[in-house]
Amino acid sequence: MSNEPNPTAAGTLHSTPAAPHTAMSGGSGRGGSPEVSKDTRRRVVAASFIGNFVEWFDYAVYGYLAVTIAAVFFPESDPQTGLLLTFALFAISFLVRPLGGFIWGHIGDRVGRRTALSLSILIMSGATFCIALIPGYDTIGIWAPILLLIIRVAQGFSASGEYAGASAFLVEYAPANKRGLYAAVVPASTAAGLLLGSLLAGLLTTLLSTDAMQSWGWRLPFLLAAPMGLIGRYIRTKLEDTPVFLEMAAEGEAAKAPVSSLFRKHWRRLLLAVGAVLLNAVGFYVILSYMPTYLSSELGLGATESFLATTIALLTYIGFIFLTGMLSDRYGRKKVLIAASVTFIVLTVPAFALLGTGNFLVIVLVQILLGAMLTLNDGTLPSFLAEMFPTRVRYSGFAVSFNLSNALFGGTAPFVATLLIATTGNVLAPAWYLVAAALISLIAVALSRETSKEPLSHE
Questions:
Q1: Residue 6, domain member (yes or no)
Q2: Domain annotation covers residue 17
Q3: Where is the segment annotated Disordered (predicted)?
């Protein structure tokens, strides 16, 4: 990144000029709304959904197949130690995400949102495909988990640019009064990727024997990454960059060093954003990724039933997420985010206690409840974070805050939850971890300003 491009050239990175699709009304970066056609917005929503879906399907399959992966890559360990080692690799891959946030933020704020998103999906799909090709521990010994770690780091680097970039892209294209609804596409597509991963994992677990799963079955979902990634990449290259970014670049106002500017001028917003993300970081990975493992390994529910319960919860989550986006447009980001934190503080421990009943219907209803609670946070957070930072550092501010919090608390959540249960003997330990995360997020959001009614600005 030493050779920084001329910010005034950002708009010329694409062969099609911005003018046909965007008629600026009073300067979109300073409060005017870019007049974008409905057809363009539909293509933006579709591209953002599909691209993010592919990225997070790739990323989530690892979590859903953790028990099988532990047996393949750590066969000499006892089941719980193998699971801890598998989740440790999951957590380590998150350590690169803050670095990725800096790099992707720089690319997104200097060169363009579309360029960053198109590159990130190629890296993710390529890395995920390579996981399917790694021989197991029985074949190449210690090199198997080492190769897995290297590829997981590549996945973490790619994911660090996806969520932030897609959110900024949608918010900058959205009508001013619907930014929350448009940004909700990002967590909805993330959940859809998780849903497909859950369906495939559940189907394979049902149809294949344990030996078949450990031999070749676990590789099948990872093989889908290459064609899906190429499709997502193709769709993204057919879009122009956002009107506000193109306007800012044309006026020569892009930050030469966006990350440096972020820390110098917007450090307080950055700290509050890191705190606000905490509930999302822990809640997302505990409720939507770690839960099948928790139900099967800690509570003794069958693997098929565990995946089925999570799949049902994900379906309802996707529906709730758009409702939350609309609520945040109507009532404001802060009110909805505060409501999310309060519900987690009050209801999480009782909900996890009900999971321990072993009744499948109760487990499904509890997961639906937890998913609905999580949507209050997840459906609002993308627009909240994108609006917190000005256009010049929007991608960087979102990417750094989101990935720093996820690196410290999100990627480690399955490992910490498993470790807390192992050390305390209390299966409710993950619930208390969620309560602590909700409390910190509540404080951060309460100290932040409301952004839903304010225009997007360059500064």
A1: no
A2: no
A3: 1-37
Distance from first CA to last CA of the chain, Å, rounded?
23
Tokens of 128: 């995920």
| CB contact at 8 A, 283 and 437 | yes
Pairing, β 22-23 against β 35-36:
antiparallel
63 occurs within a structural domain: yes
> Can you give the C-alpha Rg of the chain in angstroms?
21
pTM of the model: 0.80
pLDDT per residue as tens, the chain (459 positions): 434 333 333 333 333 333 333 333 334 444 434 567 888 888 889 888 887 887 778 767 777 787 788 888 888 777 777 777 877 777 777 788 889 999 999 999 988 898 898 888 888 888 889 999 999 988 998 898 889 889 888 888 988 888 899 999 999 999 989 999 999 999 999 888 878 887 888 788 888 888 899 889 999 988 888 888 888 888 788 788 888 888 887 877 676 778 888 899 999 999 999 999 999 999 988 887 778 778 887 788 887 788 788 778 888 888 899 999 999 999 999 999 999 999 999 999 999 999 888 888 998 999 999 999 999 999 999 999 999 999 889 999 999 999 999 888 887 887 888 888 889 888 889 899 999 999 999 999 999 999 898 888 766
- What CATH number does the domain containing 207 carry? 1.20.1250.20
Question: Would 206 be classed as within a structural domain?
Answer: yes
Handedness of CA 106, 110, 113, 116 (dihedral sign): negative
129-138 b/e (C-beta count within 10 Å ≥ 16 → b): bbbbebebbe
Could you tell me the residue range of the domain that residue 82 belongs to? 37-446
| Domain tally, the chain | 1
Angle at 373 between CA 369 and CA 374, to 5 degrees: 115
